[in-house]
Amino acid sequence: MSHGFDTTAIHAGQDFDPTTGAVIPPIYQTSTFVQDGIGGLRGGYEYSRGGNPTRTALETQLAAIEGAAHGLSFASGLAAEDALLRTVLAPGDHVVIGNDVYGGTHRLIRLIHGAWGIEHTTADTSDADAVRAAIRPETKVLWVETPSNPLMKVTDIAAAAALAREAGILLVVDNTFASPALQQPIALGADVVVHSTTKYLGGHSDVVGGAVVLNDEELAAKVRFTQFAAGAVSGPFDAFLTSRGIKTLGVRMQRHSSNALEIARRLDEHPAVVRVYYPGLESHPGHELAARQMSGFGGMLSLELADGAAARRFAESTQLFQLAESLGGVESLVNHPWSMTHASVRGTDAEVPEAIVRLSVGIEDAADLLADIDGALAAV
Ligand SMILES: *Cc1c(COP(=O)(O)O)cnc(C)c1O
């Protein structure tokens, strides 16, 4: 029987403990498992790099909330991305990535995989012609982040999937910003979804983790082999925290979205703000597409001020919005991408404008957040 999103998020993989009746499955904080004679495994587990019941609970939940058959959990979002890319690419292969993807994704592909003989081209993935022009005979992967970071560009996932199918390449969607509560890339035709579960899935800024989610059985087995053989797994306690966060993802995303919309509207009216990047605003070029492919517009938005100095002043003037990297927690954060999250792409083809400030809008009371924004604007 198929359930709604919230029911699935709360129950998938989260069966009560049969030996004690504990409603919450235990945290199996163990590295290894006793064997009844050589090879006699009691629950199928041997050593926690290969598998651990707490991680299995999370992986079942991850697959279910993305509407996919297989979920794999990693020590970080970048560990997940690295395991996937090392599984599907070989030296000489080429990847097309969005031109404003997460800075760390760009750095991973450019410096780590680049040194190993992987080539890449950045393209505006919201422009199908630009993507088509970037695809070469050696291209194996199209990597899309939507909404993108920090410019909140929206890419049509179904159209990207059609394009990838036509080219015979894999479509990977980084679903970190929207989360599966608002956007279901697998249902729209993506081959693989990746996550930094550090963000909305964990949701409380207290754990770092990543995920790869997909339907293809054969590819899933290969990624699982990389996970086991290269070893970037999530530990039991991290897996537990992430599972706990996922249970409230649906309600949190509703509040993140409503708070962000109120703030976007307030910013949009202010004379000091040059532009607001939020797909929930009707003036956003991706608004109609986002309304079609997402069930809410999320908690991330960016604003453009007069120049880099004004952006820095704004980012250093908020009180409730704390100045920090990362996003997706219940508490609001402010970030100056040019000097913080996206510093590693300065001087490359993925450089972010210096006048941009990014907000991760939390689930505090909207009135308090609006007052904080007003104060920071007054300081600019
Ligand atoms: C944070 C982030 C990542 C990287 O994840 P880590 O957990 O920090 O390794 C990847 N993609 C997006 C969109 C992110 O925000």
Describe the structure.
The chain has 380 residues and is of the alpha/beta class. The chain has two domains: 5-246, Aspartate Aminotransferase, domain 2, CATH 3.40.640; 250-379, Aspartate Aminotransferase, domain 1. Helices cover 36% and strands 14% of the residues. It contains twelve helices and twelve strands. The protein has helices at residues 5-11, 53-65, 77-88, 103-113, 128-134, 157-167, 217-230, 236-246, 249-269, 287-293, 308-315, 366-379, and strands spanning 70-74, 94-98, 119-123, 139-145, 170-174, 192-196, 210-214, 275-277, 300-304, 322-323, 333-335, 356-360. It has a seven-stranded mixed beta sheet, with helices on both faces. The protein has a five-stranded mixed beta sheet with strand order 8-9-12-11-10. Helix 2 (53-65) runs parallel beside helix 8 (236-246). The longest helix is centred in the C-terminal third of the chain and has 21 residues, at 249-269. The chain is globular, with a radius of gyration of 21 Å. The termini are far apart. The model has no long low-confidence stretch (mean pLDDT 96). The structure holds pyridoxal-5'-phosphate. Pyridoxal-5'-phosphate binds next to helix 3 and helix 4.
Helices and strands, with pairings:
Elements lengths: L4 H7 L41 H13 L4 E5 L2 H12 L5 E5 L4 H11 L5 E5 L4 H7 L4 E7 L11 H11 L2 E5 L17 E5 L13 E5 L2 H14 L5 H11 L2 H21 L5 E3 L9 H7 L6 E5 L3 H8 L6 E2 L9 E3 L20 E5 L5 H14 L1
Parallel strand pairs: 2-3, 2-4, 4-5, 5-6, 10-11
Antiparallel strand pairs: 1-7, 6-7, 8-9, 9-12, 11-12
Helix pairs in contact: 1-2, 2-8, 3-4, 3-7, 9-12
